[in-house]
Amino acid sequence: MDIADTPQESAFRAEARAWLEQHAPRRDPTKRHKPAITDAEQDAHAKAARRWQRVLYDGGWAGLTWPQRFGGRGGTPWQASIFAEEQAEFDVASGVFAVAHGMVAPTLMVHGTDAQRSHLDAMLSGDEVWAQLFSEPEAGSDLANLGTRAVLDGEEWVVNGQKVWTSGAQYSEYAILLARTDPDAPKHAGITYFLLDLRSPGIEVRPLRQITGVAHFNEVFLTDVRIPAENVVGDVNRGWKVAHTTLNNERAFIGGGNSAWSIAELTAMARHFERTDDLVVRQGIAAAHSRAEVLKYMGYRIRTAVARGEMPGAVATTMKLFYARHWARSTALALQIQGAHGSLWGASALDDGLWQQTFCGQYAVRLGGGTDEIQCNVIGERALGLPREPAADRDLPWRETRGSGR
Ligand SMILES: Cc1cc2nc3c(=O)[nH]c(=O)nc-3n(C[C@H](O)[C@H](O)[C@H](O)COP(=O)(O)OP(=O)(O)OC[C@H]3O[C@@H](n4cnc5c(N)ncnc54)[C@H](O)[C@@H]3O)c2cc1C
Hints:
This protein is of the alpha+beta class. The chain is 44% helix and 14% strand. The chain folds into three domains: 7-96, no CATH class; 130-237, Butyryl-CoA Dehydrogenase, subunit A, domain 2 (Beta Barrel); 256-370, Butyryl-CoA Dehydrogenase, subunit A, domain 3, CATH 1.20.140.10.
């Protein structure tokens, strides 16, 4: 594993920094942004992220690692990391393209038709935000149990059902959708993967408000929604294989994310509350620093593997789990450092309650993209070779299984 910049990478870093200096304001490192909580703040954030994506696109910095034939820059994963490191020093909005860039695009590059891949350019330019319509009330960890039905009617599929936890659906133009097209096949075998225009008739998006006050995700109700047959990705009833590509990319994407806080902030907080002599606080900060370093090197390992054309496999799952635990432990430490002040909320709390928000935000990371327990199962089965979980319904027709409800 090589971690120092090569001369070419140093030159790339200098070029990226110079471009960013010209196109974005520098971030004040002593101030953390108040998170977008209200609907108006979230909307403003989404618009700012679209504007910044357009600036990247016009400047030739969008899709850094995407092949040039798909409109990208054809760069290396290392260049993407270098650019992300440099961009973190600037005050720009990002995040709303996580599904489009991190999950849909890599899936379409592998499984999509040329017509489907024509969306890639709009994703890069910031014109299309995408959502992921996978989870349902009875299909989260056991995603293959999903019950949203799609029935072919001439040249169109007619979809009925309910999805839930759909991040960003309220400001997305398109979605990837999994629906059951053969209820008589075993649960993994009768699913089809669709591209859905969210402006189609019959779609109702209802935001769900979380403990933090943010309506990050939604319930989505689909009633007689019509999808053209050419929007099927891969083969009919073979959508599970396509979904795997999406889910693998999702894990690597979440685990590779930058923390919303830094260890330096924890140290500054310990100074502020005069807790730097407290042995438990000192050990906590040292442990948080060690975890952050481990994560950094795990990230390097994944990028090195990808650069050599290898699949990171279980490392991505391990990193996602480790990242979630790091988030939980480090934000709990932040509230511990604050002592009684840690129990305050909103404007009464330190930094307008940013740390309380970040602490509650751990559940998004620990559940989204597969829960901690499911990551442990994956590591146990695929990395450690432990016996598979028993699954009595694996080979039964989905219609006959407990979860189908019909
Ligand atoms: C912030 C956030 C954003 C999300 N965004 C999206 C999105 O955009 N699109 C989308 O489709 N979904 C999204 N999800 C949904 C996410 O994928 C599911 O929440 C997740 O897969 C868990 O499913 P569930 O919530 O139904 O919990 P369940 O599957 O019902 O699990 C409940 C509990 O049981 C445990 N459990 C379940 N099965 C097992 C098992 N076999 N072994 C051990 N423990 C088990 C789980 O770990 C969990 O603790 C999002 C979730 C979050 C938190």
